[in-house]
Amino acid sequence: xxxxxxxxxxxxxxxxxxxxxxxxxxxxxxxxxxxxxxxxxxxxxxxxxxxxxxxxxxxxxxxxxxxxxxxxxxxxxxxxxxxxxxxxxxxxxxxxxxxxxxxxxxxxxxxxxxxxxxxxxxxxxxxxxxxxxxxxxxxxxxxxxxxxxxxxxxxxxxxxxxxxxxxxxxxxxxxxxxxxxxxxxxxxxxxxxxxxxxxxxxxxxxxxxxxxxxxxxxxxxxxxxxxxxxxxxxxxxxxxxxxxxxxxxxxxxxxxxxxxxxxxxxxxxxxxxxxxxxxxxxxxxxxxxxxxxxxxxxxxxxxxxxxxxxxxxxxxxxxxxxxxxxxxxxxxxxxxxxxxxxxxxxxxxxxxxxxxxxxxxxxxxxxxxxxxxxxxxxxxxxxxxxxxxxxxxxxxxxxxxxxxxxxxxxxxxxxxxxxx
Length: 420
Description:
With 420 residues, the chain is an all-alpha fold. It has 2 domains: 2-203, Hypothetical protein af1432, CATH 1.10.3210; 210-349, no CATH class. The protein contains 18 helices and no strands. The chain has helices at 7-10, 28-37, 40-44, 63-81, 85-94, 103-113, 122-133, 151-156, 192-198, 209-232, 243-253, 260-271, 285-313, 329-347, 350-373, 380-388, 392-405, 408-419. Helix 2 runs parallel beside helix 5 (85-94), helix 4 packs antiparallel against helix 5 and helix 15 (350-373) packs across helix 18 (408-419).
């Protein structure tokens, strides 16, 4: 499959000489994957909220474990379709790197506070991190170009390949239950030069196929795994579902067009999966094994239907801009039902809603405090960025970059230090 990608796909912002002859030979996309795996931002994902905070329970997902699971789904689907598994896996590993503390809840606060410097969006922050903030390579002018990934890998990491001005009004609900109030876009104004370089050869605002695979893998992983976490936390009982309330949540959050009869049929299809439980989860080893079998069966079900539909839609090759991923409507509905189960029983819980309110207060106070104290309160790389900023807008962006880099725990600690 390497021959399906050309020199432009493998081009880097800063050309790199071949590795020394005694080093292991790795192809371009393999090197990209290694750089993301070893990035400091990847390690920080272990302490960032997925749905419930990392401190909530030893079993629940955090951003890192979620990203690893998305990467596995993306790699398997890429291999089945014939696009490059290393490239697609790297995009999946990187897809959440730009998320701030407290997930979409924190993203909402940073978006509100960053209007003066071009807004905030987790995916735009991912591009900024990969091409600027994460230290690896510098250009001839002494400017950081981040991890210096290939064009094809950066493009695959870009879920929303357009500017803020081209973004549609937000609608619906995030996977963690927060209402979408943040415009979805993929690049800040001062990162547009690298964005334009990355998108050379792309058509309009289209996602490349590898980005589509990453996007679907993310959708599949959290729809299945959020339900699994809810079952283990005794918040979800798959043998006793309140259909009236559940279907209303599905309509309110994900599919306003779906009526009760349609959703009943979709649920019946899911319940017909052989591993769907018939008894309440009892925390035994056998019950956990059965639950794991269910998640595996559902992921296989969704990916299999997408692979079949994609192959039926064209001859390929299924790489870059030469084909599109096809997700059948029934598969989309099954994923929406699983999301609705997690939303209804986990994300709408009163204790979680109260916690999220306090998290937003903390994030706003942290940004305010760092702006007042300036470089003395920032990590050294961001303090240097502050000194190089030419105006208030630039300094605001530096503070937003600093806060976005923090984990949930370090945001709390930094807040306490800044507020005194």
